[in-house]
Amino acid sequence: MGKGHSKSHAPEPTKTNFLSKPWREINWGDKQSVLQFVKNFKPHVEGQQIRILLHGPEGAGKSSFINSVQSVLLGEMYTQALEDNIGHDSFTKKYTTYKIQKEDPQSFYPFVFNDIMGLAPTKGVHVDDIKLALKGRVMDGYRFNPEWRLSEDDRLYNNSPDDNDKVHVLVCVVPASTLSQMNDKTVQKIRDIRMEASALDIPQVAIVTKIDEVCPEIMEDLQNVYKVEYMKEKMQQFSAEVGIPMKSIFPVKNYHDEINLNNDIDSLILSAMKHIITAGENHVNFKKNQSG
After folding, report:
1. pLDDT in tens, 39-51
2. CB 180: neighbour CB atoms within 10 A?
3. Which residues pair with 206 in a beta bridge?
4. pTM of the full structure
C-alpha cells in the first residue's frame, strides 16, 4: 500500500491465466435450490429480522446490490435503493433501512439492509457512526456528517435498541478494480469497523462488485470468475489487508444496464445472500444462547 495516498492503478494482466479447476464450486445450472433457500428463510426466533449493514468505499455499489437482491427475489428488475451514476461522491447521505418485498406487496422478507454513506480517506461517513449503527443506536433518517458523530442527545440516537435494531451481519462492499489499490486510510477504516464488529461477535462478509470490469474473460462469461487466477489473487490480497477470510468474500455483478434477469448474475448474488443470511441467523442464535 502507498503512504497515505491512493496507489496508481496497476496495469491489467496482458495474458489471463486460468486455474486448472475453479477454486470455488457453484451450481450454475440450478439456481432454484439457493433461490428457494433465501425465499423460504425464516429465523428461529419469532419476530426476529436479520439486519445487514453495508459499508465500503464511495461508489462501490452498495445501493446497486440491494436493488439486485430485490430484483432476483422478485423475478423482475426493481429499483428501491436510489443509485447514483456519477460516482464522484457518496450518494447515500442518510441512514436508511430497506425492506425486501415479497411477491405480495404487503409482505416482506425477514431480513433488511442498511445502506450508509461511503468510506473515504478524509471524508465520508464517520467511523464512530458505523460503530453506533452496529449496536443499533442509529435511527432511520439520521444524516451522516464526516465532521462529527451522532451524539446521545440527538433525537435520532436510539437509547434503548432491541435485537431487531442491532446489526447481525456486517458486509463490506468493494469494487473489484480497486481491491488492492485502496487508500491506506480507507483500509484502516475498514479494519477499525471490522474490529468493532468482532468485539460484538458480528460476522463479517465482503462483496466484490463490478467483477466484469477487471477482466474481459469474466465480462464475456461470468462463470469464469472462479477460474481466473488474477481475480483470486486480488481477493487474497484484500483478504490479507482487511482480515476477512476468503470463505466470506463473494464476487458479484450487480444489475446495472440490463433490462432482463440473467441466471449467472442471479447465481452469484444468491450465493452471497445464502452465506449472509446463514451468518446472520447463526449470530442471532449465538446471542440468544448466551443470554439464555
Report:
1. 999 998 888 999 9
2. 18
3. 172, 249
4. 0.89
